[in-house]
Amino acid sequence: MENDSEPEQSCWAYLPNVCLSHVFWWLDDRDRSRAALVCKRWNHAMYSGSLWRTRTITFSGRPSRSHASEFESALWYVKRFGKYLEHLEIKFLNPYNAVLTRKFQVTMRGLLSRLGKCNSRLVSLTIQHLELDRLVWRNIIRNQFIKNLIIFLKGMGPHLVHLSLKGARVTLEEGCELLSSLSYLKNKSFASEINIEDFFSHHLSIYSSPLFHQTMSTFRNLVILTLNYNCISDELLDILCEHNAHSLWTINIKCHIHDPHGQVVWGMSWANLAKRAPKLKVNFFFERVMKHDSLARILLAEIPLRSISLRSCYFSDPDWSMRPTLTNLLPAYKHILQKLTLEFNNSHELLDEELLQLVLSCKKLFFLKIWAFLRVAFVERLLQNQAEGKCTLRTMKVRIYTNRYETIEEDRMLRDIFRRYRDLIDSELNYFVIAYPMM
Question: What domain of life does the UniProt record list for this protein's source (predicted)?
């Protein structure tokens, strides 16, 4: 007698669609393509929009056979799944020569053109560290890439919420044209997050440019703005106050030694913005701008400062002292400062007491990172004050610089301190403390 019953199916055949989509989510492109050949149901699962909403496309900056298919796979993805895309990040890693930048430019032209035609969902675009001022970017290649990007942004501007072109290093005119493309035809952009840190080339005084001010006046819904201090002016703060006070929450400002930072910005401009945008938090990141006179001109008491990072990048200058900054400048923010990062070479002055008093005076401080010449006893005193409730740190990262190659004694003392305060550390702190030879 013949058995007409169907063969028993695998349990995978009964897997709910939501579970199947989750399995596909963990697979890379090659495995997804292979899995899609199993049956019609799995093939259908591969085209679930939720799998393709977020994408990071990475291009290697060096010639290699293993990277030869990067450009082709990027175009393959956009052609098949670009219509689902909502969050796109493009990485071009340290281009080695003009041949690769040319290939990247041609690929991006096709990718952006295709995406502009098939996609109406993109809300986030990130293309960072292009460094278009490098010699590997020939003028014709650079100009064509910027032109293609401007055309793309004009089409995507109405629904693009987040744009990061950090590290693009373009001219003032190119940068303003790129930003203005978001408000194409409407003269208004409702993008909420813009990252233009290191967006402009070095040494440009963007703060004095009427073109930049006109460009920034088109943004009407900024929530997070990241930029360099060479863009900050009374005019910019007034523009933010007029058009974005209702939405603005965070301004991240980087101040680098090679960027112009000698402009005068009045405290009244900061005070007006802080008053109109009561939820505003300002975060400052200084790189090698360490002299008190320079910092005092920038760090005005009216700024609603929540986080500050001061980094000297291992450089030491006996002509500057951190003491006035620690004792006179930073205490002005003791009622609002929440995060403090200090990395400097203070081999010419001891600052243990000044650092401790600053930390204790900042009642809302929860994040502390210090890389400096310190005594090991500084860590113990800090932990003791934490145990007594005199400070409320949640993160404590300390690198104790020494002038010796061997740190055996410091390591032993730090282990003893850790043992004595282990219960406190385990229950309250993200704790990392080491001794580090600075030779």
Answer: Eukaryota
> What are the b/e assignments for 183-203, b being 16+ CB within 10 Å?
bbeeeebbbbbbbbbbbbbee
Secondary structure in 3-state letters for 272-328: HHHHHCCCCEEEEEEECCCCHHHHHHHCCCCCCEEEEEEECCCCCCCCCCCHHHHHH
Both tokens assigned to 241: 């106050």
- Residue 8 confidence (pLDDT): 61
- Start-to-end CA span in the chain (Å): 89
Quick one: tokens of 28?
């890379």
Distance CA 286, CA 57 (A): 31
Q: Return d(Cα 200, Cα 228) in angstroms, integer.
A: 9
CA-to-CA distance for 256 and 200, rounded, in angstroms? 13
Note if the pTM is more than 0.90: yes
| Amino acid sitting at position 338 | Q
Tokens describing residue 430: 């993200």
Task: Decide if 334 contacts 305 (C-beta within 8 A).
Answer: no
> At a CB cut-off of 8 Å and minimum separation 6, what does 1 contact?
none
Residues lower than pLDDT 70 in the chain: 1-10, 61-69, 314-317
Give me the amino acid identity at 429.
Answer: L
HSE-up (13 A, CA, CB side) for residue 71 = 18
Rounded Cα distance between 313 and 226, Å, is 21
Q: Is residue 435 within 8 Å of 412, Cβ to Cβ?
A: no
Task: Give the whole-angstrom CA distance, residue 230 versus residue 426.
Answer: 42
Which residues have C-beta within 8 Å of that of residue 391, sequence separation ≥ 6?
A: 359, 360, 362, 365, 382, 385
Amino acid at residue number 87? H
User: Residue 5: what pLDDT?
Assistant: 55
**Beta-bridge partner residues of 54:** 87
Q: CA of 162: how far to CAs of 25, 123, 217, in Å?
A: 24, 6, 17
Question: What would the DSSP string read from start to end of 207-229?
Answer: GG-HHHHHHHTTB---SEEEEEG
Residue located via tokens 């190119």: 174
Strand 430-437 to 281-287 pairing: unpaired
Q: Beta 430-437 vs 395-402: how paired, if at all?
A: parallel
pLDDT at 366: 98
Give the whole-angstrom CA distance, residue 146 versus residue 214. 20
CA distance 177 to 211: 10
Burial (Cβ within 10 Å: 0-12, 13-18, ≥19) of residue 379: buried
CA-CA distance, 401 to 438, in Å (whole number)?
6
